[in-house]
Amino acid sequence: MFTSPARNFRAPPYGKHGCGAGVPYQAEVRIAEIEVTRKPRMDAERNRRRIIATARAAFADEGLDLPMREIARRAGLGIATVHRHFPARTDLVTAALAELVAECRGDMQASLSEPDPWRALSGAVHSFAEHRLQDRGLNEALFGSHPSAAAFAVDRREQARAMEQLVDRAREAGAVRPDVTVEDVRVCLSAIASFRLAHPAADLQRLVELLLIGLAAGDSASPEISTRPLRARRQATP
Q1: Could you give a GO molecular-function term held by this entry (predicted)?
Q2: In terms of Cα–Cα distance, which of 47, 44, 232 is closest to 130?
Q3: What is the DSSP letter of 226?
Q4: pTM of the predicted model as reported, rounded to 2 decimal places
């Protein structure tokens, strides 16, 4: 009777120590594959957060024209890594400023909802100073017309329209001088921003208080002008 030679068959081991010792071999391989894939993704996300935090701080101090290569250097990454996450400057500016622009949007909505015309306008001016006058990049994005901030064009128009409404309300209520226009407010805020660039140590709160005193009619500015401290600029964390 012919008997076929025994086949050299070996079942795949199970677990780390063989059959029945735990998770099947194939499952262990799959887990290892997931871990290998997960690490690059985590590294990529960490790099993205670092780039955004670095860019936000750099734009705040030096404006939106800062070279991408310099942002990469400050982040401790290669320029190729930065471009892999943000192919164009517009992409990086949008990511770096999106949260701050949303905060400005919320502040302006709060001012529009304030029933008292003077408190509404003075609150908007304070918020403007807290955010944009302490942040050169945000100021260029919302108060100027920097080409890299094209994604915020709608916000820029809405902010300008809202400020005009606040000035008109305050003037009609007699809270500000009758000759005050929204352009006066814009010019004064722009002047304060420019002055701050040349004199970073200038007392921003005092400059804002002087602006409000100049706008106010009669006693409408008392006592809020001198009692609301400006919040310091919030730093991004990587």
Answers
A1: transcription cis-regulatory region binding
A2: 232
A3: G
A4: 0.73
Q: What is the pLDDT of residues 54-104, one digit of tens each?
A: 999 999 999 999 999 999 999 999 999 999 999 999 999 999 999 999 999
Tell me whether the omega of the peptide bond preceding residue 5 falls within 30 degrees of 0, making it cis.
Answer: no
Identify the CATH number of the domain defined by range 25-85.
Answer: 1.10.10
Angstrom distance (rounded) from CA 211 to CA 190: 12
- Domain 97-226 in CATH 1.10.3720.10? The answer is no
Whether the Cβ atoms of residue 121 and residue 174 lie closer than 8 Å to each other: no
Query: Domain locations in the chain?
Result: 25-85, 97-226
DSSP string, 111-162: HHH-SSHHHHHHHHHHHHHHHTTT-HHHHHHHTS--GGGGGGHHHHHHHHHH
